[in-house]
């Protein structure tokens, strides 16, 4: 039943996903993956030691999986399920779920009103049995036998393998316990449709996977509309248009055709909503306020100095280190031919992307500048700081 319902939904909504991450509104996330063959599943990495917010868009409504009538269809609930794993391991640490219903705006307002009236008609002693509304999703712990297995049928292409296990699926539970951020975690999350009789086997599974990792963090993939460069007051009208297009606001380029970066940054929340509408106005507001996620902090001491400078990396890679150190030393990055780290017994280790990815957060290095005898330039040797 689940397979047929999802395939029918896919046929009627080509090119759309059942669930997707609202990247501009989310924060503290990286390595977002939204497999085009897994419409009800997505994944991302997050650091459990930092504040994280994940905004998930459910692009189907509860009445899409009920028999069609002439109005008054009773929408089925969707189950959001979250599983937590240590990154790279298969042992589940935690699982939780909640139940949601999705309606169009008019139907949602009517449903809320009906629910409130229904509760208020009950005696005060019974009203306490109902769970109050919350601003964010509340999850309840799941026992192992209540956890949905990964739905292998979601892959519409038989030749396209499901590359990521440990996925979370929707069910029908409410309530929550915050995940304990004591270690790097992998948390798959997903959503599924549950029948009105709470028989999950007759529902549609929507899946979403979340992965957590506290170190060696990778940058967001290029397809994610997180702005790699923040909009600044110095942006020209052309640069502003390019920024809007790159970050998913191409529909509003004409509306902002004569705006510089300074012009847009002066706009208030109300101004953005008036120009772009409520949803996109809020999304643009958050995109303008967003900051690059710092994945690695390293402290460097320049030659002849005893003061350390903090370098923040929003991308883990050799090229980023080149750019940051060139800026720190006041030279063009092309003048730096190679960077080495001092290893055991004084050996020189060539700095690669993998080496940078394994640098401990908040490490300290002293920079030694070495003249490159082969050409006009120099090399850098990163050494442990000398203790005085």
UniProtKB/TrEMBL annotation:
Gene Ontology cellular component annotations, sorted alphabetically: nucleus
Keyword Transcription regulation tagged: yes
PANTHER family for this protein: GEMINI, ISOFORM C, TRANSCRIPTION FACTOR CP2
Superkingdom of origin organism: Eukaryota
Protein name as catalogued: Grh/CP2 DB domain-containing protein
Record Pfam families: CP2 (PF04516), GRHL1_C (PF25416), SAM_3 (PF18016)
Intracellular or extracellular location(s): Nucleus
Molecular function (Gene Ontology), one example: RNA polymerase II cis-regulatory region sequence-specific DNA binding
Keywords: DNA-binding, Nucleus, Transcription, Transcription regulation
Keyword Transcription regulation: yes
Ranges for domain Grh/CP2 DB: 1-165
InterPro entries listed in its UniProt record: CP2 (IPR007604), GRHL1/CP2_C (IPR057520), SAM/pointed_sf (IPR013761), SAM_3 (IPR041418), TF_CP2-like (IPR040167)
Family statement: Belongs to the grh/CP2 family. CP2 subfamily.
């Amino acid at each position: 039943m689940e397979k047929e319902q999802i395939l029918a939904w896919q046929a009627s909504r080509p090119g759309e996903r059942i669930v997707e991450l609202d990247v501009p509104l989310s924060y503290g996330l990286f390595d977002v993956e939204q497999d085009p063959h897994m419409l009800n599943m997505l994944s991302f990495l997050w650091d459990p030691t930092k504040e994280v917010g994940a905004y998930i868009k459910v692009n189907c409504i509860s009445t899409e999986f009920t028999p069609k009538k002439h109005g008054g269809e009773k929408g089925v609930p969707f189950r959001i399920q979250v599983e937590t794993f240590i990154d790279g391991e298969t042992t589940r640490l935690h699982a939780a779920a909640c139940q949601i219903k999705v309606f169009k705006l008019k139907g949602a307002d009517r449903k809320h009103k009906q629910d409130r009236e229904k509760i208020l008609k009950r005696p005060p002693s019974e009203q306490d049995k109902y769970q109050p509304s919350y601003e964010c999703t509340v999850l309840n712990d799941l026992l192992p036998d209540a956890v949905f297995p990964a739905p292998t049928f979601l892959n519409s292409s038989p030749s396209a393998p499901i590359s990521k296990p440990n996925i979370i699926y929707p069910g029908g539970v409410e309530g929550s316990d915050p995940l304990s951020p004591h270690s790097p975690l992998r948390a798959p999350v997903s959503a599924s449709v549950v029948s009105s009789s709470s028989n999950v086997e007759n529902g549609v599974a929507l899946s979403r996977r979340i992965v957590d990792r506290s170190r060696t963090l990778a940058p967001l993939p290029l397809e994610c509309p997180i702005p790699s460069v923040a909009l600044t007051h110095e942006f020209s009208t052309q640069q502003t248009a390019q920024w809007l297009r790159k970050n998913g606001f191409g529909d509003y380029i004409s509306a902002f055709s004569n705006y510089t970066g300074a012009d847009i940054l002066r706009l208030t929340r109300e101004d953005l909503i008036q120009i772009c509408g409520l949803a996109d106005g809020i999304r643009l507001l958050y995109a303008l306020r967003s900051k690059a996620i710092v994945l690695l902090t390293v402290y460097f001491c320049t030659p002849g100095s005893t003061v350390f400078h903090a370098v923040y990396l929003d991308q883990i890679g050799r090229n980023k280190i080149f750019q940051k150190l060139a800026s720190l030393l006041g030279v063009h990055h092309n003048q730096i031919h190679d960077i080495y780290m001092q290893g055991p017994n004084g050996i020189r280790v060539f700095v690669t992307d993998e080496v940078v990815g394994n640098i401990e957060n908040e490490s300290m290095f002293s920079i030694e500048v070495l003249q490159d005898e082969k050409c006009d330039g120099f090399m850098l040797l990163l050494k442990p700081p000398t203790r005085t």
